Protein: glutamine--tRNA ligase
Amino acid sequence: LSEFHKPGENPQVKPELKEEHLAFTKGMVHTRFPPEPNGYLHIGHVKAIMIDFGYAKFHGGRTYLRFDDTNPEAEEGRYFQSILETVRWLGFEPWKITYSSDNFDQLHKWAVELTRRGKAYVCTCSAEKMKADRGMGKGHPVACEHRDRPVEDSLREFERMKNGEYPEQGAALRMKMDLTSGNPYMWDMVAYRVKMAPHHRTGDKWKIYPTYDFTHCLCDSIENISHSLCTVEFIPARESYEWLCDALEVYKARQYEFARLNLQGTFLSKRKIAKLVQKKLVKDWDDPRLYTIIALRRRGIPPGALLSFVSELGVTTSESVTEIKKFESTIRSYLEESAPRLMMVLNPIKLVIENVPDDYRVPVQVPLHPKVPSMGTVETSFTKEVYIDAEDFREIDSPDYFRLAPGKSVGLFKAPYPVTCTSYTKDPTTGQITEIKCKLEDSGTVKKAKAYIQWVNVPDSIKIEQVRYFKPLFKSDPPPSDFESDINPESLEVFDNAVVEPAFYELARKAITDARKESEIRTIKAKSEFASSPSPSDESDSDKKVE
Ligand code: ATP
Ligand code: MG
Ligand code: MG
Structure:
């Protein structure tokens, strides 16, 4: 970031445009975060948000949240709202919320002006012909017969495109760039195409929509962006970005690039995630196997942990893939000091202590955190019958095994004495252990336990309807391009019999209530934001479960 130009000293601003630009920005840094509202944001966007908002914030500047809504088919109202909520959840507040579509009139005027200047033309070649002419990968592009048509022709045909006289793909306005350039982004990129789909904000006013390449730099220009920050795949696009601003002689922002965030074993692309959701390969956009921000939030990851993960990665221009292990260890160490520990048994087996009376009940204080006493303790009772996890018992003992087995002792976490297994019963048909009998070593006969296991007392236990345990979504790493056939069938494991102690339930309920309240406030705020400006249709799901 130190290589960016200084605030107020954008080297690309032509002297004749400088005054106007500075009058607007007063020399302040102006950035924008420009998501396309075609899905929910993912962890890669956290990086973009931190850089866009963080850079401006550091310099006392301003950041726009700009919805890049030039593609009517893919956009839905709920995405707009969720994007705003997510930006705020991460702790950033947009200076202004704008839409590329706010500028459709101006962009259209500029397209006409570009055509008038002989720098754009209407092309009616088929998509295949256009692709072949552009030579994609096979040498230099060739001009089509429309490239040198008279300006008047192009102006007339562009007007006809606008009036809906061409079908979709029937015509395009192309920029007349440089076919001799080595950069494919200079090969007469499309500026406008015909689309009949109604638009979220402009309804059916337009039959033509500007492309990303035409829109982005000009919206940056309109908003007086000083630093246009984007990911490295846009490096070759910088030339066309600048070409267009120069062709129209308008204010031009300076583009800087940073490396995308990539995570091992998954992909970060709204389009691909949308496909998984549509095909029901995951439950929804907040499925915990995804790396969307709403999924991470649902997993209980606080915003600070995500910010800390991204800032540890740093900002460079070299592409890399970050290991999931690294992600998880950062989150874990962020939560280490603040997350309470409570006992849960996923696969319960009843353990009966034979040498105590039926009404045996000893209060036990269990610390919420082994190393943070200030977090306090919860009280539970140690009783004659407790549940332990099936994983903590083995029928056949071995010297390197320290948990429970016939004749062996183990500690029950924070219980007064260890227990020793005296016998067990098994279901003859399924072979599953049904009950374990133990004796309580209450007179110091057994040395200190070698291991402690979790337990939940039977009389107070609360059964959890379903515990879902998630593993990587894909079998391969990285997932192949036909990722739909690579879904790991064991990526979701469901436990139907898990039990927890009452304190777990109380704490979880409180956490859920708090999270829900906070999320409702955020949703109401985001909703009212959209209500005060022409609103994208409201399909929000504010009542959606918070888990
Ligand atoms: P997707 O491919 O997921 O739809 P995109 O690349 O089209 O995402 P947008 O949501 O349209 O991105 O853009 C928002 C901003 O977020 C862009 O500036 C983009 O460069 C940035 N961005 C998107 N993905 C990542 C990522 N993995 N790492 C860093 N920045 C990203
Ligand atoms: Mg995009
Ligand atoms: Mg993309």
Summary: The longest helix spans residues 502-532. Confidence is low (pLDDT under 50) at residues 534-547. The two ends are 38 Å apart (CA to CA). The chain has 13 helices and 25 strands.
